[in-house]
Structures are given as C-alpha cells and as structure tokens.
Structure to design on (185 residues):
C-alpha cells in the first residue's frame, strides 16, 4: 500500500473545489432547470410587455437568458445561462459572458431575450463557435417593448434585444460585448 504524503494530500484537497465546480451535466437536472427558468421568463416578458408577442410571432428563433448576473469594481464581468428556442422548442443551450474594465462599481441582475428576425441571423448565430452581440443588434427598452411592432423593426435590424427585469445597484444593462457560447448543461 502506498503512503500518502502531506504534499499530495494538500494538492488533492486543493484541487477538489476546481473539480467540484465542473458541472459536466451527467445525471444533473441542468436542462430541466434552464427550461423552467426560460418558461417563467417568457411568461413574465409577455405579461408585462404584451407587445413583445408580435416579436415572438415574427421571429425565426429566440435566445432567452433568464438570469444574467453582472458585477464590477474596476474590473467587471457577467454570466448567465439560457436556451435557444425555435418554433417554441428548445434546440440548444447557451451561456453568456462579458468582461469589462473602467470606472464601475456595483452588481445587478437582469433577463434578456434576443429575437432573431431573419433566417440568416439565426443561422449565423447557430453556426458561430462564439457569437458576440454588437452593432447589428437593436435594443428595445421595456417601455417601447410593450408597443414594439415586428413589422417596423425587421427591416432595421436582424436581431432585436429586449433587456428587462433589472435589479441591483448598477445603472443600465447593455449587451454590447457579450459573448454567447453553446453549452451542454
């Protein structure tokens, strides 16, 4: 029988949190949990901002991020997980990440939905190994989201982002510089 040295024991115990943090999804309820949160988020969106239903009906797909947590003190970051729905069915799961630097302090949480208004926009998103939100995204505030019509916005932008449900001590929520990556929950 081999002896366990203090050094090996320390290294093993030190690596334990890193291994425990790796959620590989085997035997987990990750997909069910994400889908339940997506359902609740969409219900809240459509109840509070009924005009967004027209976006849903005109879109070719929606990426729903039920909860994104963002924090910063000089350096900042954000993370969340969600699902891509096409025809009302979940087809993939995604994470969103964001890093920032500058004069910032605080934390906030929010939800957002990306409405893909064209087949090309949805196809480009799905084929990308890591898609970043940028200038091709039109932002609809919740106030205008209630009356936003897909007929007028489809020609303006292939992707429409609705950010809502903000809470916390940071001002504003933007998806500029946010990266979306396909995951296996």
């Amino acid at each position: 029988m081999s002896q366990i040295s203090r050094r090996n024991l320390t290294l093993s115990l030190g690596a334990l949190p890193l291994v425990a943090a790796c959620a590989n999804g085997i035997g987990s309820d990750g997909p069910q949990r994400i889908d339940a949160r997506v359902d609740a988020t969409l219900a809240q969106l459509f109840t509070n901002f009924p005009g967004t239903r027209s976006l849903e009906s005109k879109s070719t797909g929606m990426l729903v991020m039920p909860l994104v947590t963002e924090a910063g003190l000089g350096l900042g970051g954000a993370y969340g997980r969600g699902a891509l729905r096409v025809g009302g069915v979940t087809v993939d799961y995604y994470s969103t990440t964001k890093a920032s630097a500058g004069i910032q302090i605080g934390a906030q949480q929010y939800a957002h939905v990306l409405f893909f208004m064209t087949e090309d926009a949805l196809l480009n998103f799905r084929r990308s190994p890591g898609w970043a939100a940028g200038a091709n995204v039109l932002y609809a505030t919740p106030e205008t989201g209630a009356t936003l019509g897909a007929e007028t916005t489809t020609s303006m932008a292939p992707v429409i982002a609705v950010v809502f449900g903000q809470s916390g001590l940071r001002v504003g929520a933007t998806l500029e510089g946010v990266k979306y990556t396909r995951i296996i929950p």
